[in-house]
Amino acid sequence: MLITSKPLFVYLQRPDTGDWVTVGRYQAGSEGTGYFRYAPSYADAGLNWAIDPLNLPFHPDVEIAAPRYGGLHDVLRDACPDGWGQALLRREHKLPQNTPMARYLVLASNADRWGALAVGTRPKPSVAALAIPKLPQLQQVVEELAALNAQQPPVHARLRRRLVETASVGGARPKATLQDEDGGYWLVKPSLPNDVADIPRLEHFARQWGAASGLRFAPTVLHPAAPGQGGRSAVRVLRFDRNRERRAMCVSAASLLQTEYPGGLSNDRWSYPRLAEELRWIGVPAEDRRELFGRMVFNAVCGNDDDHPRNHAIVFDADADGGGWRLAPAFDVVPNPVETPAYLAMQLSTGRFDITREAVLADAHRFGFGNREEAAAWLDALLDRIGGTFDDAVETLDGAWRQLLAERLQYNLALLR
Description:
By secondary structure, the protein is of the alpha+beta class. The chain folds into 3 domains: 8-120, no CATH class; 135-165 and 173-197 and 216-242, no CATH class; 248-416, Phosphatidylinositol 3-kinase Catalytic Subunit, Chain A, Domain 5 (Orthogonal Bundle), CATH 1.10.1070.20. Helix content is 33%, strand content 15%. Helix 10 packs across helix 12.
């Protein structure tokens, strides 16, 4: 291979002790290629956690090529900022729109990076101290995110610098990380002036509804609009990749499905059944496949058609016996505020994106159900729970939205029963 750059070292916060170690080395090659190799020191220390169990299995003597993202390995792409963070970094560093993803990986701060990975140019880790505003500054964060989104001058100059420096978390909408007084880390996402609905309130409602239906969702807290926030509401979402100062390894469903998002040429690999099989392949507990089935159904009922592969993930559970991968809590679930979608972004069964009972049940065996009858009974019980918990959850919305979503609920329940 022809090497065209200096090596970039990849660091990992150990899931057992919390110590930082050098897990491997990434190096860009010619014509959009890139290679990763686990560090000899990592293997010599008896460590063997694979940072991506599917695409980067632990083979300490092998240079592993990156087939996607212009030569950047999937899990390293996961550690890059998404649309919002990329926009901030382009603005700050005057970068062109077609900046390679590897450039964002280097420019993004390790302090706020998703998961348990960090990167640097030195063989041994020297991870910067976290510099994240405390929760009482929520109002200032909301104001500054709004100014950033509108490309206006800073309202709070010091906070502006901090938000740009930590532009590492994913998603297309403005967001920032706050640490509360108990040490918990939360993503704060404010409403935007051009929103057609109160998106933070809708996200919080969906979480309350999904959790009441028995599904695992990341906890949320709604901060209603107040005069000091310029009429903007915000929702904060507990980060599942953080436990106080400890970070957890994460891999997106896009990586597990070996598809690019965004930027992929097709969505033929975007599939709930395929994702369920990848979960089985990497040893995720069987109940997580049924949890995934339940989330697919919930997305269909509530009309969340932004369920693309980067809105699902796995997280490493260090507390499990010997440690193991689990389906991460559901996140970024927002009912479509404009229309009731007839399709989801991910396939419900092979080749089918349509919200119908047949599409839901056609590949149910891939989620671990013994037969179609068992899957149908499980589906009907879940639909009863979703329908039965709606009235309590919808109390957080005003009358017009209650009516609209109640009509959507009845329409989609009829399709799935």
